[in-house]
Amino acid sequence: MKEIIINELMHLIGVAVAVVLGFAIGFERKLRYKEAGIRTHAIVCVGAALIMVVSKYAFAGMDADASRVAAQIVSGVGFLGAGIIMLRGQKMHGLTTAAGIWATAGVGMAAGAGLYVVAVGATILIIAVQCICHINCKLFSTKKFYRVRIAFKNVGDESNKVKELFETEHFNSLSIARDGDQTVYHAVLKTDKEYSSQTLNEIMENNPFIISVERCDDE
User: Fold this and answer.
1) I want to staple 77 with a disulfide (CB 3.0 to 4.6 A). Which of 65, 100, 105, 128 is the partner?
2) pTM of the predicted model, to two decimals?
């Protein structure tokens, strides 16, 4: 009986290590105000470690494939991560957080299996990658684009002037309408420059052929 308790306490060490490592990964996410923070990462890591311990030791001596229990962690955590991913406007959010939770489950599995060096090393690597990729450097930053809806009168070469003004090569969508004896273009363009309302007003004042212009990033 005493030997069983000692063995189970040894297994509990793996779960305890998972708590610490999950906390560390979640703390880095919390500092960046992400959807999943300390509690989510810690619980996922502990849960994965616990299932790994049960899978590895609870079925010892039985005619059963214990690895099948651990394999369900991957698909189960993948389902959890899918709930974090969402589409806001034209942008996908939560992909990195979902991937982080999935990786955290792997850390928990390693801790539960007694691979403490692997678990700690993986935690350091996960946090290091997150920190490095958040460095304010063009190499790691994703280029951000803004959408602008514009209406302008096209008499001669105004469409090219609009492209030059917003430093873009083409319109994402373009429709042409007649307004009396004038041709009016309605277009949506994508640019990597962020324009304030004051700048857009100045563009309209300096270019009388522009009828209206507005940001439409959230559509």
Assistant:
1) 105
2) 0.57
